Amino acid sequence: MSRRRRIRAEATAAWHSFLRRRTAVFFTFFFPVLLVVIFGALVRTQPTGGGLFAEPPAYYIPGYLATVVLFTPLSRVGSEIARHRDDNRFEKLATTPLGRGEWLIAHTLVNVAIIGLASLLILGLVVALTGAVVPFTARLALLVPFVVCAVVLFCGFGAILGRLSSTQDGVIAASNTIAFPLLFLSDTFVPLELLPGWFAPLVELSPLTYFARGVRTLTYEPAITDPYGTELAVVAVLAVAFFVAGAYAIPRTD
Amino acid sequence: MNEAVVAAGVSKRYGETVALAGVDLSVADGEVFGLIGPNGAGKTTLVRALTGTTPVDGEITVHGDAPTAVDADRIGLLPQSFAPPARLTARELIDYYGGLYETARSTEEVLAAVGLTDAADSWYETLSGGQQRRVCVGIALVNDPDLLFLDEPTTGIDPAGRQSLWSLLEELADGGTTIVLTSHSMTEIQRLADRVGLLQDGQLVAVGTPPELIEAHGGDSRLVIDTDQPAAAVDALRDADFDATANHTSVVVTAVSPVEIGDAVAVLSEADIDYGSLTWAEPSLEDVYLQLTGEQFAGGKPAGATTEPAASTPTAEPQEGTQ
Q1: Count of A–B CB contacts within 8 Å?
Q2: Closest partner residue to A20 among B53, B87, B99, by Cβ?
Q3: Single pTM value for the model
Q4: Contact, A231 vs A212, CB < 8 A?
Q5: Domain that holds residue B108
Q6: Which of A92, A185, A235, A254 stands the most exposed, by the fewest C-beta atoms within 10 Å?
Q7: Do A92 and B143 contact (CB within 8 A), yes or no?
Q8: What is the pLDDT of residues B34-62, one digit of tens each?
Q9: Does residue B213 sit within a domain?
């Protein structure tokens, strides 16, 4: 009961703080909209069927979702840690019963809520703007564990980045440096066939690859019968590992 | 009386820098203990050591337990330069931090205690500096701690806000709360602290009640005379058995009691020496600080010459050309 009370207090404060930073709210939701509009509606394929975005629109749904699942937690949790450290909030929290794991759970819950809303927005936009056909089957409900696990994973990663970066600017720079290559080289927007053969094993090392492939089996008709268990298991195991590492990385004072 | 805090041989290094070098300290239950010292002396590190937020060498017990093992519900901390989330209201902030504890005082009670009932629904970032610090103190009080650590709680607050916070802390102390307070304001420490410890270069170089420290290290009372003829004034005063030394535009006469001020004025008048003002000051905690740290004011005046005057300080009105 006490633990729930503490997590609720931390999450409520974090949620209100987020909602009142209007610029942050705007860009959190505007960024995926922009992405869908540019990549989904403006960029055209070549008449011969080649070039970027040559696959059917639904193929790219995992990529659009990966964008918010990856960027938002990395930058938000990392920045929040930098902000907490700048304002000596961790020193204060270290003298309260709130544990570091509880702090990360609270902020992860806020990110799950934000990214859940952004994901719904993306799905709606992709269908509305690109004409993507999403098979509405019971499997689609498995998007929830995929998104939740991926958010937990990248919240843990963000906590590690926040610990390693000394400033908020440093967190943003580091998260962009990591997230951009990860986004485009994780079987999201760029099919493996377009990458050199020697690069394929590296794609397997990205956690986002398993998220993208798993989500594709839920949202892309040609892959709808593919198994997703391995992908979900990998994302879930990595989520636990990154969460534990992230909670451990959250600073106290020194 | 039970000891709320006991520290023995506490040491801490940051690389080559020694932050604390074998500090021994005890704070009794219900006591207000003031920590003073120059920037970098180790005050904040010592507070962090006592609250268990930084690992140190040595032994520390808080209510008989290691700082990291003590019941968090009994401890309140206002860290140095602490700032809570800026876009929460004062009420939300008290709610938030109260929610982190097993039991907490009611939010309205805390807001009333720190005098913020009327500003309770304003965002933290829109409050004045004094109001913000009162929110921070309210956050430190929300779990009704019986041991409160306040690291420079009045930094950046205007005089009215400072007075208001002092009154609040005095009420807490009267109610039996043990307080460990760091500050650069000697007035604050002299007003609030039962005992004072002076840290320098990581060592606790003096501990005692303010009167004890002043008695031991504060030196004599001083009469400072602003004059364009310091050399002549010193000669005249020394001829009359006053202990006088000259500065550029002033003379400092030490060990002068209030009743002797008239005699000194008479000496100046007889010697036909013009003077601008006379300022008499008792030795204060600031003199102790300056004496023990070896620091001086930027103008190079001797310790005590321009210190914050003690409560009983009389100041003579400027007089020109007495003859």
Answers
A1: 84
A2: B87
A3: 0.84
A4: no
A5: 3-208
A6: A254
A7: no
A8: 999 999 999 999 999 999 999 999 999 99
A9: no
